[in-house]
Amino acid sequence: MVASAEVRVARCGGSRINFIEPIITLDSRFLLCASGDAVHVYSTSTEERVHVLQGHVDLVTGLRLNSSNHLQVYSCSLDGTVKLWDFTDGILIKTYIVGHKIFSLYVSKFHEGTVFIILPMESSANTEAFQLVALHLPKTTGPEVEARDILSVLRDVSPIPKATSFGRGGEFVASASGLQLSVYFFRKQKTYRFSLKANDKKGARNRFTCVASHPNDDCIATGHEDGKIRLWRNFSQKKEYTYSTEHWHHSAVNALHFTPEGTELLSGGVESVLVLWRYGAGSKKDFVPRLGSAIEHISVSPDGSLYCTSHKDNKIVVMKSSRDISAIIQGLVKGETIRTDLLIDPRTKALVCNGKPGHLQFFSLRHDKQLYNLDIVQQEYIHEAGLHQCEVTKAAIDAQGSWLATVEERQENPEELDIILKLWAYDESTQSFHLNTSISMAHEGQISAMCFSGDAEATMLVTTGRDGHFKAWLLADHPDAQGEGASWSCDYVGSYHRREPTRCCFSADGSLLAVGFGEVVTVWSPSTWELLVTFSQPPGDIRDLCFGRLSCSKYLLGTTTKNLLCCWNLLTCSLEWSSTVDVILLQPDPLSENMAAFSRASGSTDLFVFKPSEPRPLFSQKAVCSGTVRRAVFAPREEVLEGCDESTQWLSCSRLYFLTEHMELMTFSTKSEEDQIIASSKQLVIDDSVAVTPFYLLLGKHRKSQRETQDSVSSHTAARIQLPQGSPAIRELLHTPAHVLPSASFLCNMFVNSLLISKSGVR
Question: Which UniProt keywords apply (predicted)?
Answer without folding.
Answer: Nucleus, Repeat, Ribosome biogenesis, rRNA processing, Transcription, WD repeat
